[in-house]
Amino acid sequence: MNDETLCCCEYYDSLNERNHILACCCNCVDLDEAVDSLIRGKSVSEKNKTGFLNTMQERLRIPWIGGARQIAFDTILPVFILPIMLFLASISLWWTVFSFTTVAIFLLLIFNFFIRAIPNTKFFLTWTVTSILLLYFIFEFVVIPFLEILVEENIALSALIFFFIICFYTTKIKANELAQLGIEATESLVGKSINGFYSCQICNAKIPDKDHHCVWFDCCISKYNQFYFISALFFAVVALLYSSNLTLTSVCHPFRFYKAILLPDDCSDVYYQFELSLSFVSAIYSLILAAILLMLLLQQLMLISVGFSLKEWNKLTFLSKLCLGLNKKRPHNRGFIKNWSRILCLNKPQYHPLDREV
Length: 358
Known about the structure:
The structure is a single chain. The strands form six sheets. The protein has a two-stranded antiparallel ribbon with strand order 1-2. A two-stranded antiparallel sheet has the order 3-4. The protein has a two-stranded antiparallel sheet with strand order 5-12. It has helices at about 30-40, 45-60, 75-90, 95-115, 125-145, 150-190, 225-250, 275-305, 310-315, 320, 335-345; strands at about 10, 20, 60, 70, 195, 195-200, 205-210, 210-215, 220, 255-260, 260-265, 355. The protein has eleven helices and twelve strands. A hairpin with a 5-residue loop joins strand 1 and strand 2. The chain is an alpha+beta fold. It folds into two domains: about 10-70, no CATH class; about 130-355, no CATH class. Helix 5 (about 125-145) packs across helix 8 (about 275-305). It catalyses: L-cysteinyl-[protein] + hexadecanoyl-CoA = S-hexadecanoyl-L-cysteinyl-[protein] + CoA. Belongs to the DHHC palmitoyltransferase family. It is an enzyme of class 2 (transferase). Its EC number is 2.3.1.225. It is found in: Membrane.
């Protein structure tokens, strides 16, 4: 590495050449080819997409003392998208529908694009973390000042979020340990097959008893951390439902459902004040997240019970899914009790070589 002093806008690129951030749009072959393809009405190749994104990711930098610092554009996108979405959604009912619909379409379009172009993207993990922080911030600093939330209700919600964070963190820690185990097994058993280890192109490692890779947690889910993953989903669903109910009964006209249990009734006046509308749309966003996570949770519970991994489940036909896969061969099924015993017994997996590759 060259030791010459850099100004705040200079940096050394991947070829160890000195560059300036003002030249970020220059000498980009992949960008030129992509624009040329679009002008000619041709599709942009995956190679050009990947090359353009990698070049953009390297050149997207901010001035800093001692040289420009690199920032990953895909990682910081949620930090801007989510606050803008909630702000626009707070304007009126139609803006709420428009903002949520636009972001949902954006996520659907960008999901496959990022997975193919930047497999190890942190976009989805940042979306998860930003959603947690943003919703909790709005609840604590916008909803709580309405003085409708009891102290014990706030403590209960904070406890749920705390348990979710613990399970979320443990899931990732266990996933890192499993990935490291796969690396050690691959290095120590060079040229030999490893029974029960499955390759993950995103983690770039072999994971024992892999179920699937969760982009929102940015880690692989295996039989050995699936319990923490399910627990994280459970606490997240309960926290989101609880916080949304507390918020809606604070900003809307509530009615007594049963004893001390309140439910929202009339929310027609929430858009007349920004604090009310912001709290309202954050509650709606919480309900949407809760619905999605609840479906994921129920899917995980069902797959464990019948003895399928998510990868195996996705390969089934629609008719087989209607039958819960019971009409198909399930090589990993050991029966309901043993299936759950594998998930609840959190022993570290072992590896040994076999004559065939799994």
